[in-house]
Amino acid sequence: MIPGSFEYHRPPTISDAVGLLVSFGDDALILAGGHSLIPMMKLRMAVPEYLIDLQDISSLKSISVEGDQITLGAMVTQAELIASSALSEKCPILQTTSLQIADPQIRNVGTIGGNVANGDPGNDMPAVMQLLDATYTLVGPNGERDVKARDFYETAYFTERADDEILTAIKFTAPAAGHGSAYEKQKRKIGDYATAAAGVVLTMADGICTSASIGLTNVADTPLWAEASAAALVGTSVDEPAIKAAMDAAKAIADPAQDSRGPREFRIHVTGIMVQRAIQQAVKNAQ
Amino acid sequence: MQKLDIKMNINGADVEVNVDSRTLLIHILREELNITGPHIGCDTTHCGACTVDLDGKSVKACTIFAGQANGTTIKTIEGMANADGTLHALQAAFKDNHGLQCGFCTPGMIVRAYRLLKENPNPTETEIRYGISGNLCRCTGYQNIVKSIQVAATELSQQEAAE
Amino acid sequence: MNEQAPISRDERVKKLEGLGSSRKRVEDVRFTQGAGNYVDDIKLDGMLFGDFVRSPYGHARIKSINTEAALAVPGVLAVITAADLKPLNLHYMPTLAGDVQAVLAEEKVLFQGQEVAFVVATDRYAAADGVELVEVDYDELPVINDAFKAMDDDAPVLREDIQDKMEGAHGTRKHHNHIFNWQEGDKEGTEKALAEADVVVEEMITYHRVHPCPLETCGSVASMDPITGKLTVWGTFQAPHVVRTVAALITDIPEHKIRIISPDIGGGFGNKVGVYPGYICSIVASIVTGKPVKWVEDRIENLMATAFARDYHMTGKLSATKDGKITGLSAHVLADHGAFDACADPTKFPAGFFHIVTGSYDIPVAHVSVDGVYTNKAPGGVAYRCSFRVTEAAYLIERMIDILARKLDMDPAEIRMKNFIKKEQFPYNSALGWEYDSGDYHTALEQALKAVNYDDLRAEQTENRAAFERGETRSLMGIGVAFFTEIVGAGPVKNCDILGLGMFDSCEIRIHPTGSATVRLGTISQGQGHATTFAQIVASEIGIPAEAITLEEGDTDTAPYGLGTYGSRSTPVAGAATAMAARKIRAKAQMIAAYMLEVHEGDLEWDIDRFQVKGNPELHKTMVEIAFAAYSLAVPGLEPGLEAVSYYDPPNMTYPFGAYISVVDIDVDTGVADVRKFYALDDCGTRINPMVIEGQIHGGLTEALAIVMGQDISYDKHGNITGGSLMDFFLPTAVETPTWETDFTVTPSPHHPIGAKGVGESPNVGGVPALSNAVHDAFAHKGLTHTQMPHDHWRVWKTAQSLGLTG
């Protein structure tokens, strides 16, 4: 498995990187951790003429937690997300989810920006960003713009990002203190994509669910923000009927294809089970 | 075809190579520098046979381009033995506890275990199993690998305490 | 006369590190330092690299191949196609099964991934660029990927090259896609037994297509020296001498001018028994270019094109009395061999040793019939960590006997106990013609049941089922019992050969004057630790420490001729050769010692590491002393030196056995089957190195887990392989792999010089039914008789759903 030839660039700033993207046009691709792109290049399913490596752009590597405002630079790795105590205190679902991605070596290299930007429905972070209602910052020749994670994904590998834009940061408001969260992922083995996965963040007050948000991974061409599924919990004690309603609502929007993880019917079923288990775990984790 | 000058420090020695920009780190090591301990088992980041320690992190050298590796410090199995030439505690433990059979996964496995024990000097069995979950072995069923890492962890803690 | 203070006999034994010692492996000093030397580590001056253009289709006609653009790539030196090989008569090569296989496709491609052209370039990057630019124009043809449809009247002809050749290597072919029918046993007698039985169970049991997938893929480096005319090939060869002979037969290069070297091999498990187009193409390319040429496949190519295993559709019928005594067994197998019959089996046995299918049971009459067919799948059919088709046989009988137990409402352990061949029946002649050498099955299973507290497990299961019914748990507990008998150590030359070469093996021992030794074998380790364990055999036989013995294998210029390492044959055959060669050494040493001690040979007795005078052990000569004397004393009537060679033709196979018990917990909502416990009792006869044996069992069980729970090489209706990369093909990590418990009994083989039987493959043979039976057992109370492997999440969930458990 040998990639095709390309010209390698390692710009020092975002504007330099955008400049390169503009000048190379469609023939350039951005290289973050590379653990999605490089295998595609080795299979020659991706044959860019130019690769623009973002690793020298230090501003993309910061994790900022100010009050309840969290900003993640696009080049922050999964391993760095896991290691951040500020994040695990404010928003533990990031850590829970990161630990379910690939394996230790890949998490050392794989970045949050790459995970959310490349549009692979198998990636775990997009659904989490949708349930957190995160905003992606895109920088292009015409400056900076923000796109909601919930509006970002069009279909598999196609997103709102224009070819000459770089996803530089992910911003979101941390869920309320005392919230509970969970990310449940069924997979065949370490390193696998999800048969189905569900992330849940919810808050409980006096035994009643006061807010909830649910995201689903790898059960459609895009990540899914399961609005109705979450709504089924709010105002309930998260009892069996409420969970059942949430499961049904999630299954209703799941639209997976058959793959070697199983037929469509099974993957829809597992979607429900993952939602159920993530809700139960999130309730346990809530204060 | 773009050629790049790549400088790295590998196992304590500064090296410089001039390679095509598309050259993968594993091929720089194996083909250009004759460092053949890291192996190629899958090419798709699943098997971990190519694992090296890069700037203090375990990575899979089959999925890193030359340019990305420029300026890094790398340790491979060839640089694992102690300065006096004796086996590192992990190498000795793998040998003493039958932690390998065909030996093909072993360089990647030991280099990964080395970093795991730096990050977590006293791991539980479960932590070890998750810690080496990016490295496949087809021969041992992992049982004696886990045991070897446990033995090495104890040995390294004792060495540390003695210092 | 012996200057040193005497050490105890125990200490002397210990110093040898011989049989029974958990000697640390000598190989590991190199491997732990990255100093292994695998085929892709080999670099020669001017070495080129070859890479394949492969078929994207399962079945298609090649209209044209245009190599122009590829040849224009800088660094690409040649593109070899069938048109280049045909004049050399190398476009087809013989397979181990008496068929031929296309080296490069000529008119048609018959499976996805088939080799079409070989691009030779200065390095692997240029070669890959060349591969991209070879233009092949295809016309797609209808695909057969279902073995049951291969012999339909309107099935397309797959093998046009042998379309008119209805006499195959194993008899008459009855259809253009038929390969052979092979039968053994008493058909009429079996039909009678089935007709007259109280109870008969019947099931179609598929053992799905899997792949050995060693961590190192296959590869070779061929170097033809244009001056001497000598061809040297390094490669991933489990049988280097066989490769040499095949190379001589097909290239016209005399065999003494061919040197085959197996360097370190990164796991084989059967994958590296076959002869592959890559080997041939690297040789041809080296001859054409005058430079060394390397070929190393990548993982996707490995899973697509080099030898698969299993793909047996087995219909079993088992009859019994109403109290559970088995009266007869019939089995019909539809064997999917893919596009070429490249099975690695002894010539006379196109279904390998499948007729060990009566297993560990005293079954009075049996019959098997196997039909091999061609399909649009990759060729192969190797013994993936088992002896030839033994794991298929063990799976069939161990599933069938569970199904019978269920039908009779008997416990799986009880029905096995009732039908076991009894200890006093050995040597036992099976209904299908084997002579089992030794066994004590009742003791082994009793020990196993006791070790796992079997009755407690069953009680726990009863409680689990009640709790499930009460809605308190969504998890079902399954207990899998399997008892297997392997047949390994192929094999006696009278009925075992490959390409006409008898399946003996060999050992040459040279004792050096100062008492160390070099030992050479016809086998080749792929991780089994031969350098460690075979030295232990020699150490015990001739009394010099294992550490003073260097073992060499894998170089045909130096090693004696042998048939290689697969089918657990190294210990039974080469291990025996080693002991026999050592005994020749000892016999000569006894004559030398007698001369040195001035006594009659008959007055001497062997004691650990020396010959001593009977009744006067103070008078002795150690083997080290004798070794020097062999090179320094003129002993009347004896040639100088101390060397021996043995070519061992085993009188029989060996029959290792074992009792495995597993416990799984199945989450009916997700289909996840979690292996909670696995206990493996193995009896491999005399145990050479317990540490190495346990390691082999751990590894084999992990492969069994992979096969049962997920591995699956399948094809879609267009002939595309699905699951052909490590994303999908299940190789468990340390997280999915449970902790294995091992145990043993020792029933030596009566005919093997040291009583050893071989063990490397037992855990795969026994592990698969033990795990599959556990999954079935979890649902047995709901009426499940059988469901096909793999028991991956969705299939297990489907089973639960079909039984109404998923709510």
Give your account of this protein's structure:
The complex is a heterotrimer of chains A (287), B (163) and C (807). Chain A is α+β, with helices and mostly antiparallel strands and 287 residues long. In chain A, 34% of the residues lie in helices and 26% in strands. Chain A folds into 3 domains: 47 residues, Uridine Diphospho-n-acetylenolpyruvylglucosamine Reductase, domain 2; 116 residues, Uridine Diphospho-n-acetylenolpyruvylglucosamine Reductase, domain 3, CATH 3.30.465; 106 residues, 2-Layer Sandwich (Enolase-like, domain 1). Chain A is built from 12 helices and 14 strands. In chain A, the strands form 4 sheets. In chain A, strands 4-5-10-6-7 form a 5-stranded antiparallel beta sheet. Chain A has a 4-stranded antiparallel beta sheet with strand order 11-12-13-14. By secondary structure, chain B is of the alpha+beta class. Chain B has 2 domains: 77 residues, Beta-grasp domain (Ubiquitin-like (UB roll)); 74 residues, [2Fe-2S]-binding domain (DNA polymerase, domain 1, Orthogonal Bundle). Chain B is built from 6 helices and 5 strands. A 5-stranded mixed beta sheet of chain B has the order 2-1-5-3-4, sandwiched between helices. The termini of chain B are far apart. In chain C, the strands form 11 sheets. A 7-stranded mixed beta sheet of chain C has the order 3-7-1-16-13-14-15, sandwiched between helices. The termini of chain C are far apart. Chains in contact: A-B, A-C, B-C. At the A-B interface, helix 2 and helix 6 of A face strand 4 and helix 2 of B.
Task: Tell me briefly what this model is.
Chain A has helices at residues 14-24, 37-42, 78-83, 85-90, 93-98, 104-109, 112-117, 125-131, 149-152, 227-231, 240-253, 264-285; strands spanning 7-9, 28-31, 50-53, 63-66, 69-73, 135-140, 143-148, 153-155, 158-159, 166-173, 180-186, 196-205, 208-217, 224-225. The radius of gyration of chain A is 19 Å and the shape is globular.
